[in-house]
Amino acid sequence: MKQLLITAAIGLTAAGSMASAEKLKANIWFEPVHIMSKHAYIDWADKLRESSNGRFDFKVFTGGALVPPAASMQGVRDGIVDVGYHAGTYTPGELPITNILSYVAFGAEDAAAAALTITEMSFFNEAMQEEWANNGVIFAGANAGPVVYLMCKEKLTTHDQIKNKRIRMPGGVWATFAEALGATSVSVPSSEIYTNMERGLLACTGNDKTHLRSSSLWDVVNYVIELPMGVYSAGFTWAYNPDFWSGLTAEERGQLLQSNMEAFVTTQIAYANAVEEVSLIAREKGVEFVAPDQSLLNVREGFIANDYGGLRQIAKERFGVENMDPLIEEYRTTYAKWENLLTDIDRNNAAAFQTLVEQEIFSRIDAATYGVN
């Protein structure tokens, strides 16, 4: 990474642009125990505080205590917080490209590759950078959750078996895919999935495997149908308030970017390890992980080939984006690149993982000029 980018702010004098005594605010609306909250914010803030000798002292607000989910990007823009997490699906009108690309992520079967794809594009694609700027935030890192699968009461492995079933999907592209399956997509708050599954009001729910533990779904589902349905990767893990960002020195901005990169890697490792651990425990509890029949795989493949259920029309009519082809092609090309690159490293080796991410993404960012008008 360029020396400018990685130089730590340790030892900077009090004449630096950011007052060391200032208590900075960071916001993520997940609960403190959530993997993203813990690794991308709580642990990130602790490590940053130590590495900067207290110059970066972020108070982390979780669970929507300071800013609610739908207003999280606005909270960064307006300076309520200095840095925050935002799920782009809350603001489709403000983040059309981000939301459109979340449809393309349905085809991803490798969560880390998808996370790195959207991170790289968000930093370097001009249209995406313009989108962040129009919303008054400085993008500084993305992420992606694990792959989403169907979790069901019954063993529904064929297309015919799943037709007309009531399925709770996370919304967006997943709801559209439920229609392609011939199922009924049901809107249910995440806090009510367990109860609805327990009462038999839902046949299945679409979630990543960590929810088997975090939402206790392993007590109400009997089967995980391993039909990959992509990842959630819309929005940003970190975006900074422009006034805060421009008030920093290049060295300070470089240290924040370095810290974000390290936290990105630890978050991805934590997600992968959690999926493995939860899957093992779920099997011990009697949950069966079963392969989908070819008929279900055919529906998935046809859905992707058929423009993700009409993505280009959705882009034009709902988001006002006339030509998505270059963005879709860039996403697919970048994703394929990351799939290949990740095969060459041990993903549990944080140092090797960080070296790769630094080389391919963060070494290309000039902290002296990035995000500074």
From TrEMBL:
Biological process annotations from GO: transmembrane transport
InterPro entries: DctP_fam, TRAP_DctP_sf
GO cellular component term, pick one: periplasmic space
N-terminal signal peptide: 1-19
Swiss-Prot/TrEMBL keywords: Periplasm, Signal
The protein's name: TRAP-type C4-dicarboxylate transport system, substrate-binding protein
Domain of life: Bacteria
